[in-house]
């Protein structure tokens, strides 16, 4: 009987750790999504619509979506959550408008 209780306690501990890890991962994905939306609005003036958010094998987060005004313009915003959610790249199907930040630097 004592062995059953010990096994049950171990199971509960492992379940709690797994749930906590999944909650942390979801928090990272949710934050990355918001960073990508704000970045595309601030830098390019686009209303970015998110289709999917996922971890990559490289340990960063890819936020896939499109420009609300042009659904065919698929865009991927890469977020480095380990570096304070820094946007490390933007990939796109069509040309994006010039970055507002780059215009201001000229």
Automatic annotation (TrEMBL):
It comes from the Bacteria. This is DUF1433 domain-containing protein.
């Amino acid at each position: 009987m004592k062995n059953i209780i010990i096994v049950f306690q171990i199971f509960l501990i492992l379940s709690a750790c797994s749930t906590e890890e999944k909650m942390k991962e979801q928090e990272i994905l949710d934050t990355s999504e918001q960073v990508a939306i704000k970045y595309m609005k601030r830098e390019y003036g686009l209303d970015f619509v998110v289709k999917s958010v996922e971890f990559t094998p490289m340990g960063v987060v890819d936020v896939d979506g499109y420009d609300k005004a042009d659904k065919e313009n698929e865009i991927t915003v890469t977020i480095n959550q380990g570096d304070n959610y820094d946007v490390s790249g933007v990939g796109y199907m069509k040309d994006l408008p010039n970055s507002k930040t780059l215009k201001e630097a000229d």
